[in-house]
Amino acid sequence: MGLKPVKKGWNPELWVSRRPLGIGLHKPNNFAEVFRAIGENADNLAYAWRILQDGVCDGCALGTYGMRDWTIAGVHLCNVRLRLLRLNTMGPLDVGVLEDVEALREKSSAELRELGRLPYPMHRKKGEKGFRRVSWAEALDRIALKLCKTDAHRMGFYLTSRGIPNETYYAAQKAVRALGSNNIDNAARVCHSPSTVALKESLGVAATTCSYRDLIGTDLVVFFGSNVAVNQPVMMKYLYYARKAGTKVAVVNPYREPAMEHYWVPSDPESALFGTKITDRFFLVQPGGDIAFITGTLKHLLEQGGLDERFVEAHTTGFEALAQALRAARWEELEAGSGVSHQEMLAFARMLMEAERAVLVWSMGITQHRTGEDAVQAIINLGLARGYLGREGCGLMPIRGHSGVQGGAEMGAYASVFPGVVPISPENARALEARWGFPVPGQPGLTAPEMLEAASRGELEVLWSVGGNFLEVLPDPERVRQALEAVELRVHQDIVLSSQMLAEPGGEVILLPATTRYEVPGGVTETSTERRVIYSPEIPGPRVGQARPEWEVLLEVARKVKGDLADRLHFPDTAAVRQEIARVVPMYAGIERLAKKGDAFQYGGPHLCAGGVCPTPDGKARFRAVEIPRPQVPPGAFRLVTRRGKQFNSMVHAAKDPVNSAPRDAVLISPEDARRLGLQPGQRVWLSNPLGRLECQVFPAPVRPGTLQVHWPEGNVLLDPSLRSEKAKIPAYKEAYAFIELQPHPAPGQGPDVVASGG
Ligand code: SF4
């Protein structure tokens, strides 16, 4: 039986309200976003239009060609892309402003970006007030000279996911490995690294097993710790069609996310006019409660005969050990661990039992814990137990937030894997050496958080950051600043200014102006969440100063340092990079043929593990029982998680989240807790813990009682940088605690006047 068809005509049962356009209801105004984008890009409208029309979106990882995709007919465009457009169309900044760094420190990150594109290489030495313009030759010679004198273990390279294409990731990791280091990492480390680890261990794959099309007309879609309405907005259009096909939607999350409940799809007349009820049922687990919740659900499935025994028998190993753990699990422990009753878990189990097919989607609410790998494994266990693998309408989908991030690790720009997600080992290094013709180190390198720790110990002499902003991304910003300032040479290669560029030089700081993906001659590719490798052509239009493609620059420096390898570190153009990727990463075969708008292929086909057969040595998927985490929260404290508002990555786009009206300094607290503590909406409070303090305003919202949510990156001051997952080493952004101090706050060193209890 195929997927259920999308019913034609309008379906009032799914409407949020009969009030046209949701007038009087609280919702984002997507039409206003279009006018805003037109105004912002007015000086370069024709170019902006060509980018939208012909480029591959540099926002999230759903993936487009122009304003279309491979999942649905009609326009694919959202406000995230519109907000990012200006980064691609604005002119150069006046480099004179960089002569005095102190003056720039007053500016917010958004104000720094708005100054314009970085047009020229710039240089600043320790003790100097600011930067001076230098030639490319001088900048690259300085970098090469320092790299020549630096032990390969004392250098680190980081690439963000901001629109960075596969060609740049590939060239960067090859250059770094030629320098003798595996100290290269990318933004996947801080979002889905546990997904890569757990999927690879269990299924032998490191990406979604299904396609977006499987969402539309399947029986059930479950979102665990994922807010696609904000982070992947066009996914809501897919869900609108899914709802019209009769697909049910469940959300497992500590916050009843308003946009996951009701959504107005702007490009569909019915949904734009009357809205669409998206979620059938929310399960309000406590932060980190997913493992206990899923374990309880599995226990119910086991007891109720709700397993797909044929699938388990034919296609998996390790079930008996899991079953024993499930039988031994006590309901009191599962309820305490999940924060919900066993009846709630039963309700979820019944939804699954009624679903012959389902897609399980997860995101950072799952991964950003010390137990991130276990939480992903728990979802995999659930999917395997129900046989949701390798067939239409079924899948396990770690949904990616940024357009470059799926390809980053697959290209090997990662401290723990070589190209093709091949684990770093001496044996695999030898195989790569044979291909590349130079020695490749066989030990894993430093992950991004480890690079910063090495820097603070004085063990990192060179840090090269392609995009990104550690100051705003990693926990404990003050320690991050100190670490950055201890590095002898920092290289920041980017399209705009960021606050980390302004940190004091440990020795010297060099800024290198980069092109956007749309400016790269020969075009580039990205890999979407659904494993689609998509060609994005060069878009004709204005160019900024002396900005150069990042991939070229990284290799040029490597050639300067390793002159004897120069012939092996050179590509004439991006097409040549793609040709080598096709040879070195077998699953990317076909990338060498991508050459014009719309060219794409989905590696692995629509379903990985087709027919339930996995690329593991025995062809079977592995169950693994996981322990219920018991995070300790001191008496009187609230569990605290960080969340995103109107932003992309760490780039904040609006002072207020249009979805729920929360200002950036809001602390989301349950109405019950607010009432119990006598807190009024808007009241100023301090959140505190031994790591730091954050001033907030009270914002009652449907979060789980006993928990708080604050925006990220502002909440980084409350995060413990030493907390990270064991294998993937992801920082625990969703695993903190805080006390509420009522104003007026006490002087430093004294106890707070009043401490409000998290119960
Ligand atoms: S949903 Fe994602 S890929 Fe699609 S337009 Fe928006 S940001 Fe771009």
Number of helices: 27
Q: Could you give the distance between the termini?
A: 50 Å
Identify the CATH architecture of the largest domain. 3-Layer(aba) Sandwich
Which sequence of strands runs across the widest sheet?
A: 2-1-17-16-15-3-4
Ligand inventory reads: iron/sulfur cluster
**CATH level-1 class of the largest domain:** Alpha Beta
Low-pLDDT ranges: 744-757
Radius of gyration: 25 Å
Fraction of residues in H or I helices: 25-40%
The number of distinct β-strands equals 30
User: Which range does the strand content fall in?
Assistant: 15-25%
**Overall geometry:** globular
Given helix and strand content, the structural type is: alpha/beta
Protein name: Putative oxidoreductase
Enzyme class: oxidoreductase
Keywords: Iron, Iron-sulfur, Metal-binding, Oxidoreductase
EC number: 1.-.-.-
List keywords for this structure.
759 residues, alpha/beta, Rossmann fold, Dimethylsulfoxide Reductase, domain 2, Barwin-like endoglucanases, 3 domains, 7-stranded mixed β-sheet, 6-stranded mixed beta barrel, 32% helix, globular, binds iron/sulfur cluster
